[in-house]
Amino acid sequence: MTAESDAAFDTLLDGRVRLHQPQAGYRAAIDPVLLAAFTAAGAGERVLDVGTGTGAAALCLAARVPGVVVVGLEKRADAADFARRNAALNGLDGRVGVLEGDLLAPPPELVPGTFDRVMMNPPYLRAGAASVPPDPWKAAANVEGEAGLADWVRFAAAMLKPRGTLTMVHRADRVDEILAALHGARIGSLTLVPLWPKAGEEARRILLAAQKGGRSPARFTAGLVLHGPDGAYGAQAQRILRDMEPLIA
């Protein structure tokens, strides 16, 4: 177990979620908060958070949606330990569980076809196409390992119930790969939400939702502008990041 002296204390959703994270190395930012806001789960649904890390997205979703049950899957033992302790810290360990395991060889507790929703924030950079950070936390969070983007999507498809929904946050410049992976896994009815850093700037991140077995045409929404001209979060972004407003596609 990581010592408390090695952990930093952060808060999300205006203090509604408290999070211990590594003092040095990778720390969750706004992407998992936006992912949770975009995952339209309901009470009684089971949601799988793939690559849960320290549990940021899982805990934000559980805080937003009373009655939802979230299972986090995390490959790194130290990150999984953080996530379990964070669930207890927030009084959510009854609804947020964490399994240690690899999506390429998932633990037997994960039964295919049993989740209403899968959400994930995969590493943004391709293996071999970027310098691997020396910090192992950052390396695992930012650069793909043995599992590539298509592996993540295939795993999500396997875990979802028929007509279940996948939500993901990723880099906008990898949309072509994402579309190919979704097509290969027979996940369709795609909705894309560009995340604009400021009005008039190109999107660097996207949120997407897609349905297992879905066949409706893909659509783009107007997206979300994160920052105003002064660099502060815009009004809609503040309502999502601080006031727990859902991000509706």
UniProtKB/TrEMBL annotation:
The name this protein goes by in its record: Methyltransferase domain-containing protein
Keywords: Methyltransferase, S-adenosyl-L-methionine, Transferase
GO molecular function terms noted in the UniProt entry: methyltransferase activity
SUPFAM superfamilies: S-adenosyl-L-methionine-dependent methyltransferases
Gene source species: Azospirillum brasilense
Biological process according to GO: methylation
Methyltransferase small domain residues: 33-129
